[in-house]
Amino acid sequence: MTNDFMLLFPVILVSLGGIALMLAATCHCARDEQAAWACGGLFGLAFLVQLGATLTGDHSLYGSLFKDILVVSPFSQAAGLVILGCGLFTVLSSLSYFKKNSLKGTEYYSLLLFAAAGMLLLTMTRELITVFIALEIMSLAIYILVGYDRDNVRSTEALMKYLILGAFAGAFLTMGSAFVFGAAGSTKFHLIGKYVATSGFMASPALLAGSFFILVAFLFKAAAFPFHAWVLDVYDGATMPITGFMATALKTAIFAVFANFLLSDAGLLQGWVGFLFTISVLSMFIGNFIAIGQDSLKRMLAASGIVHSGYLIIGLVALGTQQIPGSVIAFYLAAYAAGTLGIFMALSYLSGKGEQWKNFDDFKGLAKTNPYTAFAISVFLLSMAGIPPTAGFMGKLYIIVAAIQADQIALAVLGVVSSVVAMWYYLRLIVTMYFHVPERDFAEEKPCRLGTVSTFVLVLCVFAISLYPIAM
Questions:
Q1: CA 273 centroid distance within chain
Q2: Averaged over 268-276, what is the pLDDT?
Q3: Residue 122 Cα distances to 63, 76, 103, 161, angstroms
Q4: For residue 453, with 0-12 CB atoms within 10 Å meaning exposed, 13-18 middle and 19 or more buried, which class applies?
Q5: Which of these, 9, 29, 141, 270, has the minimum number of CB atoms within 10 Å of its CB?
Q6: Which ranges in 98-152 belong to alpha helices (H)?
Q7: What is the DSSP string of 389-402?
């Protein structure tokens, strides 16, 4: 019972913290900076508890109470660590960002905690109704955070697009769950798996249609082709810290529940391997072509997120034949989160008031005026491009090896080709920073010390994660 409580404690902690900060926001005596440190402290404490809980094995939380609705595995614990780490660094990034942008508010940090609570539930849930509840808890908080800058037209536009399209995704998930329930007689993943194992994946049109609708909802949230169109405008309209949070923590939660659903039964996964193969290839190459044509760093990073979703789908395709495939996906998510959070951390204190500087040309000669930050950004970009000895390289290597072991040779080759194409837009910013004359004096702006320290902590994470071995 005590062990079960510790496994559930991170969700309880961030949920109660969100409620407390929401109530504190009604008090005029509450200070935003105090709320920020309280939020960061809650994320840090939850991270430590989650880290300690990873020493245990698989568990069904309160099996007699939750009826196997919530299950903790090493994969879900690793995903939870990534989400909590992203939350902590998003708070630090927000502190840097709000030094120059007056968007402070105690409720901002409350919403971060609520979003994280929904994400943590997504990693643990093994039942479709609970998936919908957790997804909506996360989504409603993210919607508000995207439109938090109410005086910004782009932010309001991003909120409306994301809200409307997100509602469609929720409707697809609900419809799919109803169809699956009609076919299998249950919404629990393991009972759905038993039905597929007994009757076969193609035996029921309702199961086929339902699982397709559920996959559509997950692919939309993961910003994979062909449900990727929203991501550029939404990322561009959201503030820098929230864009980084969405690109990392949200993607981690979605791919965690995505993998858990597909693992209900090998037949369910094999039934969709061809579909996922196509989605992966199109996500990688269309995302690359979109990214190449962008002048805005946020839009380029949004497009590159489509590419990384394609790589993660390669890991999903390999799930059917690998004994420990979750470790490959979890490692890639951690490596991607470190690099992406790092670059958004740096952009949070470099972009200035109102994010006036966010295009490639705005960062010309950054290495001459701010060499340490330029070095950090270069490390993050090289990691996202997959250059050794960074975590990004090891993540892509594990994904490609998993595809080869799953006899998906063509998918592995296309993944390598996509990585080569991506060099164009990642190296473009490095060339801009190091081989152009400065047009802006970043040194005069005195970047936030907290932001610079946090950025270099993430640089260390990029190299440290690459040293962590995983079983293949």
A1: 23
A2: 79
A3: 18, 9, 29, 23
A4: exposed
A5: 29
A6: 106-124, 128-146
A7: TSHHHHHHHHHHHH
Helix, strand or coil for residue 463? helix
- How deeply is 429 buried, as exposed, middle or buried, from its count of CB atoms within 10 A (0-12, 13-18, 19+)? buried
Most confident of 50-59, 219-228, 265-274: 219-228
322 residue type, one letter: Q
Confidence at 1, pLDDT banded by 50, 70, 90: low
For residues 262 and 316, give the distance between their C-alpha atoms in angstroms, rounded to a whole number.
8
In this model, does residue 324 exceed pLDDT 60? no
* CA separation, residue 182 to residues 168, 175, 204, 214, 398 (Å): 21, 11, 10, 14, 38
> Is there a contact between 472 and 401 (Cβ–Cβ < 8 Å)?
yes
Collapse the DSSP code of 310 into the 3-class scheme (helix H, G, I; strand E, B; otherwise coil) and give the result.
helix
CA dihedral 86, 90, 91, 92 (to 10 degrees): 100
Q: How far apart are CA 258 and CA 173, in angstroms?
A: 12
What's the length of the chain?
Answer: 472
Eight-state DSSP code of residue 223:
T
Q: Please write the tens of the pLDDT for every residue from 416-472.
A: 888 888 888 888 888 888 887 776 665 545 556 777 888 888 889 888 888 876 655
**Contact (Cβ atoms closer than 8 angstroms) between residue 424 and residue 289:** no
Six token digits for residue 118: 């929904």
What is the C-alpha to C-alpha distance for residues 187 and 173, in angstroms, rounded to an integer? 12
Q: Please tell me the predicted confidence (pLDDT) of residue 2.
A: 58
> Within a 10 A sphere around the Cβ of 346, how many other Cβ atoms?
28
At 197, which helix (H) or strand (E)?
helix 189-199
Least confident stretch, 50-59, 268-277, 363-372, 383-392? 50-59
Q: Is the pLDDT of residue 222 over 80?
A: yes
The CA distance from 205 to 129, in Å, is: 21
Distance CA 299, CA 120 (A): 27
Of the candidates 146, 132, 212, which has an alpha carbon nearest to the alpha carbon of residue 179? 212
Residue type, 191: L
Distance in angstroms (rounded) separating the CA atoms of residues 213 and 192: 15
